[in-house]
Design goal:
- With 608 residues, the chain is of the alpha/beta class.
- The chain has three domains: 121 residues, no CATH class; 173 residues, 3-Layer(aba) Sandwich (Rossmann fold); 204 residues, Rossmann fold (3-Layer(aba) Sandwich), CATH 3.40.50.
- 40% of the residues lie in helices and 15% in strands.
- A hairpin with an 8-residue loop joins strand 6 and strand 7.
- The protein starts with a strand and ends with a helix.
- Bound molecules: pyridoxal-5'-phosphate (PLP).
- The site of pyridoxal-5'-phosphate has 13 residues, from helix 1, helix 16 and helix 17.
Length: 608
């Protein structure tokens, strides 16, 4: 079995280790956990951001305020990496990059090991030390320095520790300098540039998560050239030859993703829809190829179910399915299909217990804004994710009169709970936070809308298991995949989601609700048209089904949909399925260059 080094700028592996901002980090953490469960040898390489990403507080004015979230130096969690001499290991970046000395910490994630690189070394100037202070903070220079450390430093650590790595996997383009380090090593072994590139491509993989060209890291060539020059000089190749490896035909600059694509044996997108988007977006790198022939495939993301299943639902699955769902049965559709025999009243009781845990948190009150008259019995809609404009957190508020009528329906009351952080430099995202907070506080909505501060994995877990409905309405096709809906669906929280990202694959008309136009609508009216469909579903389908109770109080139709949601989402969108796909399609085989997306058999859905 191949040993994989998985490089990522973010990892969410432990609640006391704030080295993530959103979905990319959740995915990377689940990736290591699922690799461990599957017995797939893997190490992670990331950065130890001393002050984390950001702790969100909502100020009196309703604006997001950002504080550091210093990371614990708990030595039961983080072990300093030592040199063979018995001293603390310290390493340098190569000549011509940054005069940086760094150290490393080791974190156990099941059987996987995560190495975190740290610039806080006494030999460094304060400026150099600050490279690992904050995730996604600072200017372009800071970003470049962080990425140099991640890619090049990670590679140096692997070599120093003599870790036996077969596959170098870059999760997003941030770590692509890794491939420059590999290239220099291969040339140093006496290969020509062309055969060194071939050798690097044998062992490298790149996963892209970004459906927007502007979302990729592109550095000014002038900024990167001095380093590339020093590599070129050592390797005895032309600087321009190396520079051209990171050029995208669409624009100038050192494009980290374009470089990663050229240096990898395989590039993959993270959902079927995102595969299409990525092939269209990167097509110019393969002049003469039809879009469908662009060699970018996809492996749809998945979530580590033991991490994201609420205690109440976990007890129910243990009783109904046995403990195998936590391990070798996680991706077995036949195991999950046994839910068909589970008692509806028991399943509903487990759902209510998961909901009670969320409401307990809401009653405790810390960081809860608005929501003064939330009712545990009322239909509860959850919406939580990064507050980026394309995710349209405020879409559901577009027609306030209609929303109010829906929430205040005396027979079928409803409520909405929001959470999410905006990037500190994202003014439109911060304005959206302020908008939602204002609505949560406003008497107009009478406490039926709440905002929970400081969205993080623990809040996420309560929400994706404790809401009744999980709302998602991005601007298609900008949701590359999305994973919170997978967490919700596997907990029996019904997805009410625009058909984008993973939901275009997951939705089967019986396991939740889909709306919108896959791929997106033309024209300026798309917000209005999308939200019309959303309101129509809420009013005509979601609320009536939720409130249609049998004599014992159980909503039978709703519970059938919950059952279908769990049985279809859990086995197909879990971490084990994801890792098995990576292993089978990307890690293990000496692949023929098939220019075709991976189409899994849909057996899991039909069996369940
Ligand atoms: C799952 C998760 C995400 C990613 O969710 P999306 O649906 O991709 O937006 C982000 N943040 C946290 C805390 C999560 O748990």
């Amino acid at each position: 079995m191949k040993t994989v080094a998985y490089f990522s700028a973010e990892f969410a592996v432990h609640e006391r280790l704030h080295i993530y901002s959103g979905g990319l980090g959740m995915l990377a953490g689940d990736f290591l956990k699922s690799a461990s469960d599957l017995g797939l040898p893997m190490i992670g390489i990331g950065l130890f951001y001393r002050d984390g990403y950001l702790a969100q507080r909502i100020g009196g004015s309703g604006r997001q305020e950002e504080a550091a979230e210093p990371n614990s130096h708990d030595l039961t969690l983080l072990k300093p990496v030592m040199a063979p001499s018995g001293e603390r290991l310290s390493l340098r970046l190569p000549e011509g990059t940054l005069p940086l000395v760094f150290q490393a910490w080791e974190v156990s994630v099941g059987k996987s090991k995560l190495y975190l690189l740290d610039a806080e070394h006494p030999a460094n100037s304060p400026e150099l030390k600050s490279i690992t202070h904050r995730l996604y903070a600072g200017d372009r220079n800071m970003r470049l320095s962080q990425e140099l450390l991640l890619g090049w430093g990670g590679f140096a650590l692997i070599r120093e520790l003599r870790l036996p790595i077969d596959i170098y996997h870059a999760n997003e383009g941030h770590s692509a300098f890794l491939f420059l380090a590999l290239l220099e090593e291969e040339i140093g072994r006496g290969k020509s540039l062309a055969s060194a590139i071939e050798a690097v491509r044998e062992v490298s993989l790149f996963t892209t998560h970004t459906p927007l060209e502007a979302g990729h890291d592109v550095f000014d060539e002038g900024h990167v050239r001095p380093m590339v020059q020093s590599v070129a000089a050592r390797a005895g190749v032309e600087t321009e030859e190396l520079m051209s490896l990171a050029r995208h035909p669409g624009g100038p600059g050192w494009n980290m993703a374009a470089f990663a694509i050229r240096m990898s044996r395989e590039t993959n997108a993270v959902s079927r829809r995102h595969g299409q988007v990525a092939r269209a977006m990167w097509r110019r790198m393969w002049p003469g190829k039809e879009e469908a022939e662009v060699p970018i495939r996809h492996v749809t993301n998945g979530v580590h179910l033991p991490t994201w299943t609420s205690p109440a639902m976990a007890r129910f699955y243990d009783a109904a399915l046995g403990p195998a769902w936590r391990g070798e049965g996680e991706d077995d559709p036949f195991l999950w299909a046994r839910l068909a025999q589970a008692d509806s009243a028991l399943l509903w009781r487990a759902r209510l217990e998961a909901k009670a845990a969320l409401f307990e948190r809401l009653r405790e009150g810390g960081g809860v804004i608005g929501g003064g008259s939330l009712d545990e019995k009322a239909l509860t809609i959850g919406f939580a994710r990064r507050f980026a404009s394309y995710k349209r957190p405020a879409l559901v508020l577009r027609d306030r009169a209609r929303l109010k009528k829906f929430l205040f329906n005396p027979e079928r009351p409803a409520q909405i709970i929001f959470a999410g952080k905006a990037h500190p430099a994202d003014e439109p995202g911060k304005a959206l936070v302020a908008d939602i907070v204002a609505v949560a506080k406003s008497p107009e909505f009478g406490g039926r809308i709440a905002f929970i501060e400081n969205y993080d994995p623990s809040v996420a877990k309560l929400l994706v298991s404790g809401a009744d409905v999980w709302l998602n309405n991005p601007v298609p096709p900008l949701e590359a995949c999305g994973t919170s809906g997978m967490k919700a669906g596997a907990n029996g929280v019904l997805n009410l989601s625009l058909l984008d990202g993973w939901w275009e694959e997951g939705y089967d008309a019986r396991n939740g609700w889909g709306f919108g136009v896959p791929g997106g609508r033309e024209g300026a009216d798309s917000d209005r048209l999308d939200v019309e469909e959303l309101y129509a579903l809420l009013e005509a389908e979601v609320a009536p089904l939720f409130y249609d109770r049998s004599l014992d109080g159980v909503p039978r139709g709703w519970v059938e949909m919950v059952r279908e949601s769990i049985a279809t989402v859990a086995p197909r969108f879990c971490g084990r399925r994801m890792l098995r796909d990576y292993a089978a399609f990307l890690y293990e085989p000496p692949l023929p260059a098939i220019a075709r997306p991976i189409e899994r058999t849909q057996a899991s859905t039909s069996a369940a």
